[in-house]
Each structure stands twice: as C-alpha cells, then as structure tokens.
Amino acid sequence: MKNPVIGVYVCHCGSNIGSVVNVPEVVEFAKGLPNVAVAREHKYMCSDPGQDVIKKDIKELGLNRVVVASCSPLMHEHTFRKACESAGLNPYYFQMANIREQVSWVTTDKVRATEKAKVVLVGAVNRVVEHDPLFVKSVPVTPATLVIGGGVAGIEAALQVAASHTQVHLVEKEPSLGGHMARFDKTFPTLDCAACILTPKMVQANTNPFIKVHAYSEVIEVSGYVGNFTVKIRHKASYVNNDKCTGCGVCITKCPERGIPAEFESGLGNRPVYVAPDAPQHGKKPKDTFGKRPAIYTPFAQAVPNKPVIDRDNCRYYTTGKCRVCEKMCEPGAIDFDQKDWIEEIQVGNIIVATGMKTFDPTPMKNLGYGRIPDVYTGLEFERICHSSGPTEGQILTWKKESPKAIAIVHCVGSRDDKHHRHCSRVCCMYSLKYAHLIKEKLHNCEVYEFYIDMRCFGKGYEEFYSRLLQEDVRFVRGRVAEVSDWGIYPEEKGRLVVRVEDTLAAQVRRIPVDMVILSTALEPAENADHLKHTLHMSCSSDLFYLERHPKLAPVSTATDGIYIAGACQGPKDIPDSVAQAGAAAAQAIGMIKRGVVEIEPTTAHIEESMCTGCQICIPLCPYTAIRRNEEKRIAYIEGALCKGCGTCVGACPSGAAQQWGFDDRQIYREIEGVLAAK
Amino acid sequence: MNTYTYYPGCSMSATGKAYAESLETVAKVLDIRLAELDDWNCCGATAYFSVRETLSHAISARNLALAEAQGPGRDVVAACSACYLGLNKTNKYLKEFPELRKRVDSALDAGGLKYDGSLEVRHILEVVVKDVGLEKVAALTTRKLEGLKVASYAGCQMVRPYGFDDSECPVLLDNLVRAVGATPVPFAMAARCCGGSQMMTNEDAALRMTKNILLCAQDAGADVIITTCPLCQMNLDAFQAKVNHAFGTSFNIPILFFTQLLGLAFQVKPLGIERGVAKPGPALARFIS
Questions:
Q1: How far is CA B111 from the centre of its chain?
Q2: Are the C-beta atoms of residues A460 and A609 closer than 8 Å to each other?
Q3: CATH class of A147-229+346-356+526-599
Q4: pLDDT at residue A679 tops 80
Q5: How far apart are CA A658 and CA A650, in angstroms?
Q6: Model confidence over A105-143: pLDDT tens digits?
Q7: What is the torsion angle, in degrees rounded to the nearest 10, for the CA atoms of residue A548, residue A552, residue A557 and residue A559?
Q8: B170: nearest CA in chain A?
Q9: ∠ CA(A207), CA(A213), CA(A219), 5° rounding?
Q10: d(CA A330, CA A177)
Q11: Chain-centroid distance, C-alpha A618
C-alpha cells in the first residue's frame, strides 16, 4: 500500500459549526496529525467551491485519503464521495467527521466543543488510513411491478406504472377491486358520486393489457432483493371457473342461502331485524335480507372482475353436503366444487404496497352504545345507508324503518384518545360534514348535530365546505360526547336516544335527544397489515401504520429498497392524498425500471469462510433474510444484494467470521484508538 | 373452603345491617369463610382522601397492615363499595408512589406496624362471581326467582377506576341475577352515581341523581333494585319518600342488597329484608316467606 497522504477539510457550515467550534484552531491541530499533508477550512464545504478545493488538492498534492469534518454523513457523505471520485480517487477512501450534530449543536461551551471536534477528527484521520477501495455493484432490474391492494391507491399506482408499458401485477384480497372507496356514496368536498369516478378506473385497470389483476388473492411470500423479487401469490379457491363464467349472475339470484352479513355493507347485516311489538305472530317469519348476501356472491353490482365467489364457510353444499343449486343453474358449467387454492410465483423488480386501512371497532367504548343500541352506526355503515345501492336504497331510516327527526354525528371516536389511538384520523371531520350535508339534502327538517373537539378542515376546498355547512343549519357542538343512552328522563326523550355532552363553548352539560347516532370512527391499519409487514420486512411507526423512509423527503419509500408505500397504509389519508402518493410510488418504480439496473452499496457484510463454524446464530438475526446456509460447506453465506449493511450479524458472530466492508475490526479499532488517544 | 380477611367497615353495623346479616347467612351456603379483621378502623372513606391525602392513606394502610399480620396471603374482602375503593386505592398508591409509601410507612412504624404490600383487596361480589362461580350459585338455588324483574345497580365506586367489571356497562350482577332464575331488565343507570354523601351536604343535587336511578328502574319495569353498597342502598331506599315529595313521583321500589336476593333463592334466613323502608310489591313478596 502506498503511504497515506491525507487531506483534512474543516467546515464552518455558515455559523452552525463556526460560531461554536474554533475552526482555525482545529485546522492548525489537524496539520500536526500523522500522514496529514494538508488541512484547510471553508465556509461551506458542500458548496461547489468547497468541493473544488478537495478535487484540486487530490490532483495537485497527490492526496490518497480525504477527511471532511462537517455535518452528519446522512447529509453529505454522498456529495464528498462523488467529489473524490470525480478527481480520480476511490470514493471509499473518504471519511466524514461529524462535528455539527454531534458537537456544535449539542455543546454550548466553546472550548469544550473545540476539544471535542479535535477528538472526533483524530478518530476519522486514524480510521481513513485503514480504508480499502470498494466498488459499487450493479444488478439488472426485472421490468415488472407488484402492487398489493386494489383500492383507489393501488389502482392508481397500477395504472400509472402500466402507462410506461411495463408489466404490473395487481393483487387484491377481496373478490373485486375498489377497496373502501367503492362503498362510499359521495366524496367530500366536491360531492362527486364515488362510484362514478372510481368504477371507470377499475375497468381500466382490468382491461389494461399491461395489468394482470389477481383478485381474491394474497401475497404469501416475498424473497429476493431490490430489482429482483420473487413473489408467491395464493389464489383463493372461488369454486367458480373464471374462464367459463360469463358473469350472468343467475347463481347469485338462485342461491338459497341469503342470510350472511355482507362485508360490503360494513356492519349493517349484523343487526337483529326489528319486529314491531304489535306485528302479527302467525305465519312464517319474513326473510331477513337487510345487509345480507348469498353464499355465492360478488361484493357489489359493478364488481371488477365480475366473477362471483363461493363463501365456503357458509355454503350449504359445504356445510350440509346438499344443495349445488348454483351448479344446476349455471349454463356455462362454471361452478367447480373441487377447486383448490393455488400458488403462483412471479418475478418483479419493485413492490408498491397499498393495503389501505380499516375503521376502528367502537364496541369497546361501551358509553357510546355501539353494538348494544341498534341505532348507533359507524360512519362506514351510514355510508351504506346513504348509498342508493345500499340496503335502504339510499333512504335514511332508523332501525325501526322510521325517518329520523334528529341525528347526532360524533367525531374522534377512537382517534385523539389515549385509550385507543393517539393519532388524528384526518378524514373524519370532513366525512362527518359530508354526512351532515347528505342528511340535510335528503331530510330537510332533520336536525343534525356535529359533536367535535376541533374542526380540522385541512385540504383544498375543505374549509370552504365547512363554511357552507355552517350555513346549512347544522348544529355544531364543541365537546366530547360522554354517553349515548337509550333511556330518556324527560318526556321529549322517551323512546329516543339521548346524547350527553359537555358543550365547552356554552359551558354547560347538555342532554340532546336524537333518533340516530353516527360514530366517526378512527382509521387503523388494514387487518393483515402486520402479517404483510413481516412478509416484506417493513417497519411500522408507533401508530402501527407502515413507516416511510423519511416523513418529509421520502414519504413513499421504505427502509427496503424497491418497496414503496402508497395511500392509507402509511397513515390516515383522504382520496386525493392517496392518489397523489400512488402516483409518486409509481414514478419511483418506473424510474428504476427505466434505469434498468440498481446500484448496490458495497458496505455490506460477508463471511470469512475459513472462520465460520456454521453455528447459524446469524441467520435468524438478519432482518433482511440475507444470510443463507451453504449446506455443502456447512457454513453461512450472505446474499450481497439483500444485505443492507446493518451490522447485526457482525456484532453477533461469535467467531468473528461475519465482517462488513468499510466497517472491519481494524478500521473501527483504529478510530476508537484515535478518539481515546487524542487530548 | 376459601378463607378471606373480611373488612366490614362502619356501615355494616349501622345502615347496612341487613347487608351484614344477609352476607353472613349467604356466605355459609356458598362455603366461604369471612374472618373479620380484628381491631379494624375507618377505611379512610372516599371523602377524606381529597381533604388530607396522606393521613387518609395512613388510616387505610393500618387496616392492610393488620390484615397482613392476621392473615398473611389472604385476600382482603370488603362488601361496601366505598371501603373497597378506599382500601384498593391505598394498596395501589403505596406500590406506585414511593414518596407516599415512605410517609405512610413511618406513620405505621410509629404504631409498631408494617405493611409489605403483599395483599389484594377485593369486593365480595367478585369473590361470589369469580371464586365461587355462577354455576355453583345456580346449583345452590333451591327456589328459582322466576318472573322477578331485577334492575342491577352496580353504582360508581365498585366499577371505577379499579373495576373488575365493565365501568360503563357492568354485567356481573346481571349474570348473577340470571343464575338465580330472575330476569335482569335493561338498566341504563347501572353504573351512575347515586349521589353518595352529597345527600348530607348538597341534598338537591343528590336527590335528583337518586330520582333518575329510580325512574330508570321504574321505566324498565323492575320489581326490585339490587345494590352492592350500603350507601347506595340507603340513598335509594331511605330517601325514596323524599324523592317522591320533591319531584311529585310515587316510587315504591324495594332496594335489596344482592346478598339478600341470593338468600331468597337459597331460601335461607335471616336476610334482614324487613329492615328495608320501601316495602316489597307482590312480585317480590311471593318469594319472601
């Protein structure tokens, strides 16, 4: 190895470092360190003139090592490595000393800050001597994209990627695309018909030659690495041969089992049917089909793909061994009771996760009566009551099928609540306003009360919508609802529901009689979000939504390269934001496919074969499943492209066989020695 | 036979005498032994905690120290909801707040006592429902209270904040009512405050609260209200006439302790039912013989 010739550059970072650390003193100190050929200061090392100083010195003074003392490597390591590279030096002969985040920003005493900056610098100068040249590897990218979740975000992401004429696999666990948005009546604040704007996109996705829709399917296994993922998809047996099925729907109308609460109608089908006390008792009980579906069904009329599925748990043939009515009725002979789940394996380069959300179940909040008082509904249930294709055909009716005279809308149910979710669910204020408007539109004389903590109308046109509702004779009461009771004290309360609330603007406790209560429930991650998190090795934030790489600057990336998140799986989100994120995720995927290759950081771990004892401690510890066992040699090996260089295996390996490029013992010990020896 | 350290509290020998009598009778049938704490003192009572906090905890802790010495490892059982809350609160606070613990320890030390915090404080209802069990209660029932409509009034202190039952919609009493063959009625006021000791200091407010509980039970068609607390029983029963006078109502709803209801189903005596002010109507009277 040539003798090290080191250049040291100390940055003022404007006044960020310079106002606390005595930079000229650090520079003078650096000049006296072994192997240091030159030491300089600069107001902004990251600026072009700052970088030019480095480049010039490399060329003129023959530097073969560079140390910059400035900010965190997260900020500018890449910048300086590029500068070294452009001057002909291997970029990994560079080392950064962080004297901003770790010194000037956290140390007020100027003398001590300067001493600490020197200590950190000696560590870096010592370490860089031991650096080896490393080389970035490139691997080709499979030009296909997997989108998980067929709601509005997933559909949008799939369409955007497909617009680049590359293959997309769109996986949806339900029998139809559409997600939550397909259940909505209108969207806020523009009051567009949700189905009218969504169903064209569903059809586009299903007919696009570059999109393969895998409905009624789930991702069960993902292996590989950025650009080269292998994905296993489980296609759930629908007991209908989709190649033969014409979607005529005869099976659905003829199915004798009609009492299964429909998932699509939210919880409406779970309520017992109301029987008037004076109803005649003779004869057969009328069939209860409110919010129910047959055993063979499509979730809704505009389902895409329009192929029914058989719900095995509730199908009479599977539960009693007799029936097969659908089979007899199906003219093309599409019913196939012997169908089994089957697994498909696909190769993709990118994965976009758009698994969306579910709504909070308010049953545990006993004071609000959900599940106990039939006229207490969740927002999603009311969405179906309002919807012209819902069980009431859009008529707003109470459980007793009467027209309500007053309706209460309770905000923040499960949100902003230490007992349940601390987060604000963002969309509830707006959909609550939408409900108020829809109620007023359908029932002019119905009193509508909004019980809110704060009104959060954050989006474009949202505040204007709120102002409009203030003019529509809606009663806004600021206060958290204490109780919804089905027992009234006063004559005007008898037979109705009573909302008890502290009106914090009027400073009094109020009892407000109503006929229907809508709970604006919190948004939570989707049911299987946690399972998928493990399948894809993603992380979650404390609210259990998927964690983005950076909350501001990388909101659709994850810690795993090649895996992106879009829509409400990342956090509560309305439709415009979900669609925007889907587009952003699609752009990332297209960008990588267009590039054709991905660069793999060389600072990964590797196994020194001669030292590995084959104990396998490292294998389960690896968070990226990058470590495998070589059965022949009985030792571990690391799939370089999967390794993220986290160092877990290096720390855990009892024999020191796991080592990391750029972080080997020699380098780390030299750095520590430098830090300890200084002073 | 399970043995518990029994903390009666002041009400049980005065306004809650019927509770004490019926509990003693029923405990024999249920095969539980309640060993009364020797030399017990006031539980600290709910009102005192907000007046002189440390002192009230010290008073309460004295009972726990005695219980630990007299029956190591035995659960401390209270029948009065206020006693249950007070003792439980001290027991938990001593574990949670070391500063308080230090002061209380020094107070106990002055009296030659010491409490290690090894005991659990429980309400007698929890013991009946969870330790004895509903199946055994049903099996011991010799006369099912069929057709008797019961409003189960858990009150506020037993279920909050250390409740072993749901604090908004308690269910354990209802389950017990079903076990003896009676019918629980929907009772929206099951976990609301009866007015408590406000009846002595702010009667207007307390009467209104008591009235609402009685009204709710009447609306639900209840023949009887059962309680787990001597103070609730007193407010609902002894002040019923005053409620009627103040609000122009005409309530006549008997208020029984849940132990009295069990006694009727087990057909044992004495139960102290005659001590009640509001007299049983025909629906209840047919089980009293």
A1: 30
A2: no
A3: alpha beta
A4: no
A5: 5
A6: 999 999 999 999 999 999 999 999 999 999 998 989 999
A7: -50
A8: A366
A9: 170
A10: 24
A11: 29
Q: Is the pLDDT of residue B46 over 80?
A: no
CA distance B7 to B10: 10
Output the CATH code of domain A6-134: 3.40.50
Burial (CB < 10 A; 0-12, 13-18, 19+), residue B247, is middle
Least confident piece of the model among A170-174, A445-449, B192-196: B192-196
The reply to whether residue A366 touches residue B215, judged by beta carbons under 8 angstroms, is no
How close does chain B come to A484, measured CA to CA in Å? 10
Distance CA B208, CA A275 (A): 35
State yes or no: pLDDT of A591 exceeds 90: yes
Q: Give the integer Cα–Cα distance in Å for A388 and A383.
A: 10
DSSP run (H or E) holding B47: helix B45-49
For residue A447, what are the β-bridge partners?
A406
Closest-CA distance of chain A to residue B204, Å: 17
For domain A360-523, the CATH architecture is 3-Layer(bba) Sandwich (3.50)
- Inspect the interface and report whether the beta carbons of A486 and B188 lie closer than 8 Å: yes
User: What is the reported pLDDT for A282?
Assistant: 67
B219 in contact with A at a CB cutoff of 8 Å?
yes
Q: What mean pLDDT comes out for the span A634-644?
A: 87
- Spell out which residues of chain B touch residue A487, defining contact as CB-CB under 8 Å: 186, 188-189, 216, 219-220
Q: How much is the average pLDDT of A234-262?
A: 95
Q: Which residue of B168, B192, B209 is the best one to mutate when testing the A interface, meaning the one whose CB has the most A CBs within 10 A?
A: B168
How high is the mean pLDDT of chain A?
A: 94
> A166 Cβ partners below 8 Å, 6+ apart?
A143, A144, A145, A210, A590, A593
∠ CA(A581), CA(A597), CA(A355), 5° rounding?
30
CB-based contacts of B159: which residues, under 8 Å, 6+ apart? B165, B166, B167, B170, B191
Q: For residue range A382-391, what is the model confidence (pLDDT) as tens digits?
A: 999 999 999 9
pLDDT in tens, A470-485: 999 999 999 999 999 9
Tell the residue number behind the tokens 């518990």, with chain if given.
B4
Report how far residue A514's alpha carbon sits from residue A475's, in angstroms, rounded to the nearest whole number. Answer: 12
Asked whether residue A272 carries a pLDDT value surpassing 90, the answer given is no
Out of B166, B169, B216, whose CB is closest to A487? B216
Q: pLDDT at position A286, please?
A: 62
| pLDDT (0 to 100) of residue A144 | 98
| pLDDT band for position A678 (cuts 50, 70, 90) | low
Which of these three, B88, B123, B158, is where a domain ends? B123
| Contact of A486 with A499, CB cutoff 8 Å | no
Asked if B169 lies within 8 A of A366 by C-beta distance, the reply is yes
Residue ranges matching CATH 3.30.70.20 in chain A: 601-661
Output b/e per residue, B142-170; b: 16+ Cβ within 10 A.
Answer: eeebeebbbbbbbbbbbbbebbebebbbb
pLDDT in tens, A64-106: 999 999 999 989 999 999 999 999 999 999 999 999 999 999 9
> What's the Cα-to-Cα distance from B34 to each of A160, A277, A510, B1, B135, rounded to whole Å?
74, 48, 45, 10, 21
Instruction: Please tell me the class of the A601-661 domain.
Output: alpha beta
The answer to whether A358 touches A526, Cβ cutoff 8 Å, is yes
Amino acid letter, residue A623 = P
pLDDT of B48 above 90: no
Contact A165, A251 (CB under 8 A): no
Q: What angle do CA A347, A352, A356 make, to 5 degrees?
A: 135
Is B212–A372 a contact, with Cβ atoms under 8 angstroms apart? no
Instruction: Specify the pairing of strand A309-310 against strand A635-638.
Output: unpaired
Q: Considering its fold, how many domains does chain B have in total?
A: 2
CA angle A460/A466/A467 to nearest 5° reads: 105
